[in-house]
Design brief:
heterotrimer, A alpha/beta (331), B alpha/beta (415), C mainly alpha (359), B: 415 residues, Rossmann fold, six-stranded parallel β-sheet, 15 helices, C: 359 residues, mainly alpha, ABC transporter involved in vitamin B12 uptake, BtuC, two-stranded antiparallel ribbon, globular
């Protein structure tokens, strides 16, 4: 699922309705097809501020800063967490905090245990359901309607945001999640494994002697990853050059002619629940037979979930991308 | 073209709007269609154009039943001029007139032919609308637009013009211009005219025959003098009128008579001889002081006549600009005889209304109390070479009471 | 409405009415020349070619001409990629402008546009639900356009039925039903977007109109209804003129207003639905272009229809050329360009008519 889609949900829905009501798309001309700039939200700062312990070593106060640079203070390790994003759910389960999770959003489907948790809605949250779960913390992903969560925070249920655009930031979030849930050791172990796998890839792909092919990744016909997006970071780490790296938005719709002219060596499209794209459809697009990737039959699919969910499985995505872009390095 | 309507009926749902109407219009005739609001005039026109789906078997055009014709054939027989036309779109006058060629296009694929251009130009010339051809239609005045629309109707090269109150939104000069134009087309081009008209006097002046509708029935059809009788108008419109003959056009002139609505007042009856606006203030003063006032003889367009009508004062009326007829004079004397006082306002006296001075003399003879208002000693406002002044002085010497203001006049009849 | 304000305020200033209108042949020839020039420039502008933000080896002007008119290694750039797109933009611009002209005549309202009878809202429902009901398995890339087209036609039919009683089309009722059904379907689209939020950006792109992947097949599919529709609307020009003076006048002039309205609604709906199905809702073309052309050639539909059709093509080809090149690599929905150009121009027209000009 593309979490980023949600940020524009509320305002854009109004626009959509207005568009259709007026029966002309005209007056919504000012609509800007971009997404929130992440720079100001992502801080390299260490999330941990302070922990206080009592005599027997229990945490009595935990002060921690999230990816939006918001600092929250908890009266102990949270035991009833609601996770509102597939990414955060995957992170929480991966660090061993699955038992502390009492509710998840409608799209959290991994790992399988997540499916047994209470559903609390998604872009439209069911505040009633959340309250009935009596949570002590809400963890949410980027672009969740946090305005809806403000009243809950006032009521003493704080929320904590994971918002990332790079694989390094994913690793930082996993470490934060370990501290937040009291599973520091599990998270360290997980991180060690992930780092080792990432290094195994990047020491090959980022070697200066390796050629960097031009790569075009699309998650919907002609929609791709632009500069500053997660996909852009993944392509770079996998040893490719993103042809859309110089466009002006994170998730641009590019023109067909631009792709043809950029002449990618590799084309990768994501496969998800709603995907209609096929390799045949791509190679039959007018003029695309001139593209090197299509002439070389270097056109591949990849599971949408492992490149768009910014949890531990992103390393799977990196591995697969690297193997698709540099099959010669991974024989 | 001969138009024969034989038993035309039409209903909106259960409501019967036209009931078994039969009439015939012969080639080159100018027939007016009249009747009160809601009597079915416009509906009848719409049945002729087939805009309303009537039992069109009842209508025969040159012996051909209307229902056997195509829409375009009907449109090249009848050209319609509605009450008014408007559009927000920037058509020029010529665009509008060109629309008249629509019934004559050979097919949708054929272009504009020379015959079309000639017919349009011809229509513009005949109607005197050529100077309006390149102006925006929506910027034209109401009269100019009607002229363009009549040109469009001519461009249709029809056998008959159907007009639906074509002058209703025009001022009086526009009305006369429009009716003169229609009459000219009727005479010069032998165009048959079938026109719904609301103004009885315009109809009387221009129509060869008038058909009078009443509640969906044809009440009568005939020449204006046959149709426009006080009795007929009373029965169809419920209004009492006097019918006179216009001395200039010799056509019939119909005037509403308000004499029947005589107001019973508590006070003494006063008859006022006035005209030319001289009697207005006095009428109002007397009326406000509770007197029952009557007046006469006044021409219809006289402002005193208007005031008398507004106050619902019984008034003896005469055709505009016409001399006082004997008939009106007798009526005046009758009213005068019912009054206790007669007041003569300082009205301009000409040959046309000299009879009003004579009426004052009659009043003295009848033994009425006569008051003459004379603002100065110079005499009457005299357009009969001193004759009026002499006459008034003579009245005073014979016992008429002379005052110089309205207030004095009021005082004199109170004492 | 523009016209009525002009009528109230501008008085007798009739002398200044359109100098060009006496020479319709000249105006139409001029428009054809502008169309040819626009086509030529639009075909040369792009990422591969002598003009534009080239991202690959530069192509000289001569090479481009050889590529277009001959068979060289550059030919595919023009004949496979750019010319179909330019052709589709031209056809859609022409179709929308022509349908807009017809709708303004049928509704006797200069604010009417081709979407007024529910085409866009119906098509939006179709496009938004295409991904949900799994039609792609059967129809592939044509699933969304097909469903958009079908839903647009169904919607128009419902609106039409609502506006019809006793075999007569009541344009006021038709207008209101169009608005009512559009707002209802707007809610449906919002709901569908809510369900299918993964395609949210894409739907927004579609709702604003864009021509991302154009094939000759699409050009062919759109060309058929557009060419037939333009032809039919053109030959009914005289009747449309008469209809603007009211249905009774149209009847009295021998035009059958009922069949005329039905014909115009059907033809416009087919053209518009075909156009919208592939490229989404491109606003303003169908509203603004007839206005602009009325300023130049007047209201006579025998000239206005072809003028609007040609200028619609020019307008959308130009707008699409901007949309595909103004931001490097990115596709800007062409609807944004048309709205950005159309909005201010429309306000200018309103101002102008208020201050005494002619609309």
């Amino acid at each position: 699922m593309k979490e980023r889609n949600g940020v524009m949900m509320t305002s854009s829905m109004i626009i959509v309705v207005a568009v259709v009501i007026s029966a002309v798309a005209s007056f919504s001309g000012g609509y800007y097809l971009g997404t929130m700039n992440d720079e100001e939200f992502i801080e390299e700062a260490d999330g941990l501020t302070s922990i206080e312990l009592d005599d027997v070593g229990n945490v009595v106060s935990l002060t921690i800063t999230d990816d939006y640079n918001r600092t929250i203070t908890l009266p102990g390790i949270p035991q009833r967490i609601v996770s509102i994003a597939p990414t955060t759910t995957e992170i929480l389960f991966a660090v061993g905090a699955g038992d502390q999770v009492v509710g998840v959003d409608d799209y959290s489907d991994y790992p399988a245990e997540a499916l047994t948790k209470t559903r609390v809605g998604s872009f439209q949250l069911s505040i009633e359901t959340i309250l009935s779960l009596e949570p002590d913390l809400i963890v949410c992903g980027d672009l969740v309607p946090v305005d809806d969560l403000e009243p809950l925070e006032v009521q003493g249920i704080p929320y904590f945001v994971f918002a990332t655009r790079t694989i390094d930031a994913v690793l930082k979030d996993i470490a934060l999640a370990g501290i937040l849930t009291g599973h520091v050791q599990e998270s360290e172990a997980l991180l060690d494994g992930l780092r080792a796998r990432i290094d195994a890839i990047t020491e090959k792909t980022l070697d200066s002697s390796v050629e960097t092919p031009k790569v075009y990744v699309e998650y919907y016909p002609l929609w791709t990853y632009g500069p500053g997006s997660f996909g852009d970071d993944l392509i770079r780490l996998a040893g490719g050059i993103n042809i859309a790296a110089n466009t002006t938005s994170e998730y641009p719709e590019v023109t067909s002619e631009f792709v043809i002219s950029s002449d990618p060596d590799v084309i990768i499209f994501t496969l998800g629940a709603m995907t209609t794209t096929t390799a045949d459809e791509i190679s039959e697009r007018p003029g695309w037979d001139q593209i090197t990737a299509i002439a070389d039959d270097a056109i591949y699919s990849i599971d949408d979930n492992i490149v768009s969910r910014y949890g531990p499985r992103i390393v799977d995505g990196l591995e697969q991308l690297a193997e698709l872009i540099h099959p010669e390095l991974f024989e | 073209m001969n138009l024969k309507i034989d038993g035309l009926s039409f209903s909106f749902g259960q409501r019967r709007v036209l009931k078994d109407i039969s009439l015939e219009v012969s080639d080159g005739e100018f027939v007016g269609l009249m009747g009160p609001n809601g009597s079915g005039k416009t509906t009848m026109l719409r049945c002729l154009t087939r805009f309303l789906p009537s039992e069109s078997r009842a209508v025969l055009v040159d012996m051909k039943p209307l229902h056997t014709l195509t829409d375009r054939e009907v449109a090249s027989i009848f050209a319609v001029v509605p009450q008014s036309s408007s559009t927000d779109f920037p058509f020029t006058g010529r665009d509008i007139v060109s629309m008249g060629r629509l019934p004559h296009m050979r097919s949708r694929l054929s272009g504009t032919r020379k015959g079309d251009l000639d017919a349009v130009q011809n229509a513009l010339d005949i109607t005197g609308a050529a100077h309006l051809a390149d102006r925006a239609f929506f910027q034209l005045s109401g009269g100019e637009r009607q002229r363009i629309v009549i040109a469009r109707a001519l461009a249709q090269e029809p056998a008959a013009l159907l007009l639906d109150e074509p002058t209703v939104y025009l001022d009086i000069s526009g009305q006369l211009d429009m009716m003169d134009l229609i009459k000219r087309l009727n005479k010069e081009k032998s165009l048959t005219i079938f026109a719904v008209l609301h103004d009885i006097n315009l109809a009387a002046r221009y129509c060869d025959r008038i058909a009078l509708l009443n509640q969906g029935r044809l009440e009568i059809i005939g020449s204006p003098s046959e149709v426009l009788t006080p009795e007929m108008i009373q029965s169809v419109y419920g209004v009492e009128v006097a019918v006179r003959r216009d001395p200039f056009t010799s056509s019939i002139y119909v005037m509403p008579r308000t004499i029947s609505t005589s107001v019973a007042r508590h006070g003494t009856r006063v008859h006022l001889l006035c005209g030319g606006g001289s009697g207005g203030p006095l009428m109002k003063t007397l009326f406000d002081n509770g007197y029952s006032v009557s007046t006469g003889v006044l021409n219809v367009l006289d402002s005193d006549y208007e005031i008398a009508n507004e106050l619902h004062i019984p008034v003896v009326a005469e055709v505009p600009f016409a001399q006082i007829s004997d008939e009106a004079h007798m009526e005046n004397l009758r009213l005068l005889n019912e009054a206790s006082f007669v007041i003569v306002s300082p009205f301009p006296v000409g040959p046309g209304n000299f009879k009003n001075l004579e009426a004052a003399e009659n009043a003295l003879v009848m033994g009425k109390r006569v008051v003459v208002i004379m603002p100065s000693d110079a005499g009457a406002i005299d357009f009969v070479g001193g004759k009026a002044t002499t006459f008034v002085k003579n009245l005073i010497s014979r016992g008429a009471y002379k005052v110089s203001t309205v207030e004095e006049a009021l005082g004199s009849i109170r004492s | 409405m523009v016209g009525s304000t002009a009528q109230e305020q501008s008085g007798q200033d009739g002398q200044s009415l359109r100098t060009g209108r006496r020479r319709p042949v000249l105006v139409l020839s001029g428009l054809c020349a502008v169309l040819a020039a626009t086509l030529f420039v639009a075909i040369l502008v792009g990422y591969r070619g002598p003009i534009g933000p080239s991202v690959s080896d530069h192509m000289s002007f001569g090479q481009a001409i050889d590529g277009i008119f001959g068979s060289t290694s550059d030919s595919w750039t023009f004949w496979d990629v750019r010319i179909p797109r330019v052709a589709l933009a031209g056809l859609i611009g022409a179709g929308l402008a022509c349908a807009g002209t017809a709708m303004q005549a049928v509704f006797r309202n200069s604010m009417a546009d081709p979407f007024i009878i529910g085409v866009s809202s119906g098509a939006a429902v179709g496009a938004a639900s295409a991904g949900l009901i799994g039609l792609t398995a059967v129809f592939g890339v044509y699933a969304s356009p097909l469903l958009a087209f079908v839903c647009a036609i169904i919607t128009v039919f419902v609106v039409y039925k609502m506006g019809t009683a006793h075999g007569r089309v009541y344009v006021d009722t038709l207008l209101l039903s169009g608005v009512a059904i559009a707002s209802f379907l707007g809610a449906v689209v919002s709901f569908l977007i809510f369900i299918a939020r993964q395609q949210f950006d894409q739907l927004i792109g579609w709702l604003l109109g864009s021509l991302p992947l154009v094939t000759w097949t699409q050009v062919g599919i759109v060309a058929l209804p557009v060419i037939i529709g333009v032809f039919i609307i053109f030959i009914y020009g005289r009747e449309l003129n008469a209809l603007l003076l009211g249905e009774e006048t149209a009847h009295n002039l021998g035009a059958n207003p009922e069949s005329l309205k039905q014909m115009m609604l059907a033809v416009s709906a087919l053209m518009t639905a075909a156009a919208v199905a592939f490229v989404g809702i491109i606003g303003f073309v169908g509203l603004i272009v007839p206005h602009m052309m009325r300023l130049i050639v007047g209201a006579d539909h025998r000239i206005l229809v072809p003028a609007s059709t040609i200028f619609g093509a020019i307008f959308l080809i130009a707008a699409d050329t901007v949309a595909r090149t103004i931001i490097t690599g990115q596709e800007l929905p062409v609807g944004i360009i048309t709205a950005l150009c159309g909005g201010p121009f429309f306000l200018y027209l309103l101002r102008r008519s208020r201050t005494g000009g002619i609309s």
